[in-house]
Predict the 3D structure of the following.
Amino acid sequence: MSDSIEQIECLIIGSGPAGYTAAIYAARADMKPVLYEGLQPGGQLTITTDVENYPGYPDGIMGPEMMDNFKKQAIRLGTDVRFGMVTSVDFKNGGPQKVIVDGTKEISAKSVIISTGASAKWLGIPSESRLNGSGVSACAVCDGFFYRGSDVAIVGAGDTACEEASYLSKICSKVYMLVRRDEFRASKAMQHRVLNTPNIEVLFNTETDEILGDTTVEAVRVSNNVSGEKREIPIKGFFVAIGHTPNTEIFKPYIEMDESGYIITEKGSSRTNIEGVFCAGDAQDKIYRQAVTAAGSGCMAALDAERWLAAKED
């Protein structure tokens, strides 16, 4: 191995709550962690406005400010935080792990923690991005609270969409569920729950044309893809629940994943099928997808990596 290749004890890929928490724990364990921030430094919380469900912030906090606090804490404890993106890897059991940053820089890492997260799928209409964080959200559990007592709409037809519609129905006056086809993709149990909730109105064969409002969501214009009929529905919140894509593509030749690309970790741990490679956060969690659970799994990954390295040195 060339002397020019940097040797790292613990490399963390990704900078959301999972990555920064892993960095905090790894730094305190004197593992000299190096963290590459990736394409979206700070993760999805940097495009979230108010965060009211993370413990320790009784008055809430803005998402970008919260992630800046995570970063400052990781740096204060000794993490080397770098701007850059891991573009390819070459993993082998026991390591060292070969990692390429920005297509050119090669790193050799004794241990790797993957915390690349998952990206929400969007409809792709201009008003969706323009009003993101101002009434448009991809997480009802995160943001539904802000629309309590209001009318909202949610797009989707699977289990997640049905679960989020049910959640919203408990705090919102009315929930319009926009389903593109003439049937759900969700399980029968979830369909039954939605269809039997009085304040959920399901609109089948319905597609979103535009989200209306200058600075905040005021209404949604939809069209029936069978009849062609259009209508405007006054709402305050618009939720997209058409799935997430885990940011794991570069690891596919090496790491075991499910059919959707979520990394499979050993039950009760962050260990992957490759010794010395661990995973935390939304890259492996398709169930909870919350900042607090991502942070918890980041702690697990750092502890798992520390114990693995210690055992290897014995």
Notes: The longest strand covers residues 105-114.
